[in-house]
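Q&A FORM
Asked by: J.P.
Topic: structure of Gas vesicle protein

PROVIDED:
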Amino acid sequence: MPIEASDTTANPAPSADAFLQFLVNLVNNGSQLESIGVTLQMGGMLVSGSIVSGAEYFDRFAASFTGSLDTLDADTRDGVRRSLAELGDVFRVPQPADPLPNYIHLADALFFMADGTPVAGQPTLWRGRTSSVDGFILGRLQSEAAS
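REPLIED BY: S.T.
REPLY: Here is the structure written out as tokens.
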């Protein structure tokens, strides 16, 4: 008797949640929706923050990173800032519906254990693969200190 393929091999799980990718694309396209509060479940941890466009992420990353380069002269720091910010240029034009985005960018990200216990740290910028997200909810978790 031949062995039949199971449903999981015939219909493998998608590499990423198309609905989450759709939300990321809405923000990336710079419509009137500038950010979306979200909590992502990833490998037993929770990452909570606001989805921001790739352009905003790289602009903020560039400013933060070059702000710490106080041993460099102002012209060199500005050149580094501009180079890093240019990585966001791909997001400054309308994003296609296909392919859906592979990366999600969060601002003011906080990290929590699966039971909601906050992991020490300051809100930060965060970038991750949409394919690594196990699940998500709309809305941000708040640490007890922020409440």
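FOLLOW-UP: The CA atoms of residues 69 and 77 lie 7 Å apart.
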